[in-house]
Write a structure and sequence with these properties.
By secondary structure, this protein is of the alpha+beta class. The protein is built from 2 helices and 8 strands, in the order αββββββββα. The radius of gyration is 19 Å and the shape is elongated.
Length: 137
């Protein structure tokens, strides 16, 4: 029965589809993704992200010029995601994602420009259809 080429192809397709669904579920459990890109000419040190109503802080110790990184935050209730830039002279708190919802799978692209100015763009989606690919990009 399993020697038939058609059965082998069907089992392979079902296996790939189940692996894809597993990726969607795993990505969904990580929460909202914030992708940060440094387009300025200075290295950014002491960059951190925090849910406004939470106590968990994710630190990005060094972000060199041209580099990018992603952090994942899963809110337990409706909250804002705040990015803190501390350059030793002053600390700036910037809300990069407003109204993050539990169970959502949103993406925020944050660009740090020269002299620590920022721009951000928020993509809201209810399901993480990209699955495993979100972890690779």
């Amino acid at each position: 029965m399993l020697r038939s080429p058609l059965v082998r192809v069907l089992i392979g397709i079902v296996g790939i589809f189940l692996f894809y669904l597993l990726g969607v579920a795993v990505r969904h459990s990580y929460g909202d993704r914030v992708e940060v890109r440094n387009t300025g000419t200075e290295t950014i040190r002491n960059l951190s992200f925090k849910l406004q109503d939470g106590d968990k802080t994710l630190d990005v110790p060094v972000l060199s010029p041209g580099a990018r990184t992603s952090v994942y935050l899963a809110p337990r209730e409706k909250s804002n995601i705040v990015m803190t830039i501390n350059d030793g002279r002053k600390q700036r708190d910037i809300t990069v994602f407003s109204n993050a919802m539990p169970g959502a799978c949103a993406l925020t692209n944050v660009t740090i420009l020269s002299s620590h100015n920022t721009t951000s763009y928020q993509h809201n989606q209810s399901t993480c259809w990209r699955g495993w690919l979100d972890f690779m990009s």
